[in-house]
Structure formats: structure tokens, C-alpha cells
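Hey all, sorry for the wall of text incoming. These are the two entities for the joint prediction.
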Amino acid sequence: MTFKPAHISRMAIALGCILPVVLLFGISLSQNWAFPKLLPQQFTAANWSALFTKGNSITTGLFTSLIIALLVASLATASGFFTSQVIAYHRFRRQLIVLAYLPFVISPVIFAVCLKFYFIRMNLVGNIMGIVLAQLIIAFPYSIIFFVGFWNQRIKQYQMAVNTLGGSNGYAFSKVIVPLSRPMLLVCFFQCFLISWFEYGLTSIIGYGKVQTLTIKVFDFLTEANLYYAALSCCLLIIPPVILLWLNKRIIFRRIE
Amino acid sequence: MFLTLKNISKKYAGKTVLQQIDCSVPPHITMSILGKSGCGKSTLLKIIAGLEQQDGGQVLLEQKDISHTKPNGRNIVYLFQEPLLFPHLDVFENIAFGLRVRDWAAAEIKVKVETMLQSLDLESHRSKMPHQLSGGQKQRVAFGRAIIINPPLILLDEPFSSLDVEIRASMQQLYKKLAQQFNITALFVTHDLKEALLMGDQVAYMEDGLLQVFDKKQDFINDSRTGVQNEIEFWNTL
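and here's what came out:
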């Protein structure tokens, strides 16, 4: 068997991606790894089984993150889809798109500090709804920018074609526009989920330490030097995006084929 | 008269596109409208279909004022320059679309679509997706999708402009056959002089938002503005 340079570089990339994950899983399954020992002194499933104990903070963080990410992804995708239609056919289209880019001009942490005053006034600091709203300030314009190119003249003509064939705007929407946009809707949902899932700056400032998402927990464990729980949280952090990637591949790519 | 247009006018950003258009179309004929690009032909068709709103005037279909009726309530089909087949539906479903809108029973849809596929010589393509069809086949499916709902009026906005010469000629023949078979009343917009004469039972000429309908084709041929005389002169001097 001969190895070509392309094979070697591909394998190197694959190892570069897989090894950190393997290492994380290894650390999450270990205890008593102190310097200068080369390997952990004990391998155990105790860290993982602790997830199933009542009131475990990592499990709570996982579900909190899931609720927030699913809410943000659903709301941002749906509202961005409809809003982008209005913007795409608006006479001030360009100006409105520029406005949608504004939340990305400054860092999320600075942005959160700027917003914090208003969130305190509205009693939205330290609760899930506040974090969902804060993350939507990033995810919603992202969704608008994502969809605005979809609403072109051709889509408008499809709608007109349905209208002259006797279908209402609602019929055109459900039977033509949604089926045509389904792959984009799924990708946008996936991207918004990831934006929310890995969001740290806005969440830590607006959450005020009271809402512990999984990302926040990872940073907490790292500052506590709790390597094993940090690795365990990282493993859990990876699982939902991997499932979504797999679904994405199955649903969207199979459709394209 | 079947279709009557009374004083239709339209402006875009202060620029007059249609000026007091008056026109009547009898039933079961195809009126072709010849005009250069930007003369207002497509705007006129879109106003009749309800896809654009006129600034003034009335559209009457079978003596009924439909000027403010929504496009889906007019029962007038508009065929665009491109076939605009729905890319997620196969040929059968594209043709059946208008029948599904009208909630026809599945068995009736099957019979009607099969008959239409035969008329269009598309039986072997019934399960193909639009991207698997040639330009001419796509346009045939678009015709089938329009005709199957038996609309009182069809508006054709340069439907063959994107086809090459041979396919264009065969599509013109097919349209003539279908128009006769299904007693179609239609307005056929084109910027091609030969096509206007071939397709229309009656011919009209549009220039700068003004429409002139010719009672006889000979009047159209004799009118210097239409360009027919220039064309004859060109071929005679060749």
C-alpha cells in the first residue's frame, strides 16, 4: 500500500480534528492526574454517572443550554425569514441591510455591557428570557442577512405564477415558497443554534451568574481548575452540534442528490 | 366582447408607461401585440392579470369589472418569458398544480393530467423534474399547467423569446394547435414581427404606451410604423 502526500495530509487533518475530542473523552473518564504523572492514575465512569444524579449542575446546564439554543434558533429562523422578505422588496433595502449588520460591528461583550442597563430596567437580567432576547439581538440579524438573498425576483415570479393559477398568497407560501426554502431554513436553524450554543460574552453578562449554561459551566470549571468536569462539559457541548451536523448531512445533502 | 380595456393608464416614477389604452378582444381568438422592449406590453398584461394595479381605467372580462379583483380571483393565467416551473415538483405535479389549487379529486386530476400529457407529447417525461427537461419541454409543461384549468383568458408574455429558432417554430405550431383544440382566448405579446403575424388572429401594435389594434392583418402590414414594409423591402433588395 502506497501513501500519497494527499492521503497523508488528509489523515493529518482528520487526526488533528479527532485527537482533541479523544483526549477530552479520555480526561472526562479519568481522575487523579497530577504532575508529573504521564497518565491519569484512575480511569472511571464516575464523572459521567454523576450526570444522572438529581440536581447535577452540568445536567442542569445542558438542559438550560438546550432550551435557550432551541428557542433562539426557532425564533431567529422564523422571524428572520419573514422580516427578510419585507426588507428584500423594500425600497430602502440597502439601508435596512446595513442596519442588520450593526450588532456585528462591536464585540458581544461590549454590546452586552451597553445593553445591560436596559435589561436591568426591564427585569430581564439573570433569567432565561433575558438571555434568549440578548442572543436574539445577534441571531435575528444574522438570520435576516442569511435569508435576504433568497427573496429575489424569481421567488416573486413564482408567487405571481401561483396567484394567476388561482392560488392565494398563503397557498403560494405553503406549497411553493416553504418547500423551496426548506434547505435554507434548516441551515439557518442550525447556524443560529450554534450561535446560541457557544455564546459566552452576552450570556455571562446578561445571565449575571444566575443562568448557568453549559458554555458558562466550562469556563467556571476551568477557572476552578476542575479539569475532569471541564472535559466532561466540553464533551457534552460537542454532542448536539455533531447530531445537528449529521442530520444536516442526511436531510439536506440527500435532498440535493 | 370578451375582454374590454377602458382608458387604462399607468405611470412609473412620473414616467407614463400606458396612455389611455382602449381595446376589445372577441372570444376564442389570439390577439398578438407587437412592440419594442420597454413600450409597456408586459405592464399591460400584468394589469390585466391583476399583478400590477392601473392608475386609471377599467378591465372588463365578460362584461364584469375585474379592475380591483385579486389575481387569484380573476381566473386569468399569465405565462412569463421563462416557464417558471416549480423546481420541487415533477412534470405531472407541475401540470396538476392549478387543479390541486381548485381541490379536484385525485382520480379526476390523474385523468385530466394524463390527457394533457398526451396532447403535449410529454407522456414519457411525466416523472421528470424540471431541471431534467429541455427549454422547449419546460415551455410545453408551462402551457399544460396553464391550459388544464381551462382559464377564460391566457396572457403570454414573449413565451418563446428564450428558445432557439427551431424549437421556437415547433412551439409556435404547438400553440396554434392547442389554441384551436381548447378554444383559447389569448393576448400574445412579442417583439418579433414574424411571430406577431403568425400567432395572432388579430394584431395590435404598441409604441410609447399607446396601443393600436388593426382590424385586418393587411392594415398592419401597410402601416409604416410596424416595420413590415421595411422587412419586405429588405428581402426584395437582397
